[in-house]
UniProtKB/TrEMBL annotation:
Molecular function terms from GO: DNA binding; transposase activity
Protein name in UniProt: Transposase
Compositionally skewed regions (Polar residues) per UniProt: 83-92
Residue ranges of the region described as Disordered: 76-102
Domain called Insertion element IS402-like: residue spans: 4-59
Domain of life: Bacteria
Organism name: Ciceribacter lividus
Domain Transposase IS4-like: 77-231
GO biological process: DNA transposition
A Pfam family of this chain: DUF4096
């Protein structure tokens, strides 16, 4: 809504959103924004304002519910798949760490998706935090937003009694570890777990996520949300077309 004081707004907010989607898709700098969009300072100001309001997570929440209903599912999921992705950071600074397993210095994008691959939870943290240590905070952040999501599929990185003890303090979450079959030879797609890997691949189509160029964690999370909103709007547009 427009502010009650000051000059009437002349900026088209639809164009501001289009500019943010363009930056996420191409990975261009603020000042490299084409002249077809509003001034980069205006787009940047709205980005930080909407980030502070938590608007991107709110929009993503409603889009996920609508997409699930169009798929014939309940609006709120009951099961999810959790995983993380380590990405390198730049010289911009901010929180970072070294992931010895992936041999990557930077941050982790820790997400949880429903069984359709739609992102329902996100947390960005230092890459030196192990998956089993970062999972409780991520699950705690979605406890009220998705109250029926209580069963979580995960890979071997989330096994152990330490995670189970911490989850008991948060809620009634149950974690099912998906392990690779001992009889498998060569590459094998793990059941359930491939869903979250596909979501990372979908998000990777946005070049702005190739590296984490943001100094603040809040901005890093906002760009992942914008990338997923871009994915959701295109998915919903296909339903309207057909």
């Amino acid at each position: 809504m427009p502010r009650p004081l000051g000059r009437p707004r002349t900026t088209d907010l639809r164009e501001v959103v289009n500019a943010l989607l363009y930056i996420a898709t191409t990975g261009c700098q603020w000042r490299m924004l084409p002249k077809d969009f509003p001034p980069c300072s205006t787009v940047q100001r709205y980005f930080y304002e909407w980030r502070a309001l938590g608007l991107w997570a709110h929009i993503n929440h409603h889009l996920v519910m609508e997409a699930r209903e169009l798929e014939g599912r309940e609006a709120s999921p009951t099961a999810g798949v959790i995983d993380s992705q380590s990405v390198k950071t730049t010289e911009s600074g901010g929180i970072r760490g070294y992931d010895a397993g992936k041999k990557t210095k930077g941050r982790k994008r820790h997400i949880i998706v429903d069984t359709l691959g739609l992102m329902v939870g996100l947390m960005v943290h230092s890459a030196d935090i192990q998956d089993r240590d970062g999972a409780p905070d991520l699950l705690k952040s979605i406890r009220h937003r998705w109250p029926w999501l209580l069963h979580v599929f995960a890979d071997g990185g989330y096994s152990g009694d330490k995670l189970k003890r911490r989850l008991k303090k948060i809620g009634r979450f149950t974690v099912e570890i998906i392990k690779r079959s001992d009889k498998a030879k060569g590459f094998e797609v793990p059941p359930r777990h491939w869903v979250v890997e596909r979501t990372f691949a979908w998000l990777g189509r946005c070049r702005g996520l190739a590296r984490d160029v943001e100094k603040s964690i809040a901005s890093a999370e906002a760009w992942v949300m914008i990338a997923h909103i871009r994915l959701m709007t295109r998915r919903l547009a296909r339903y309207c077309y057909y």
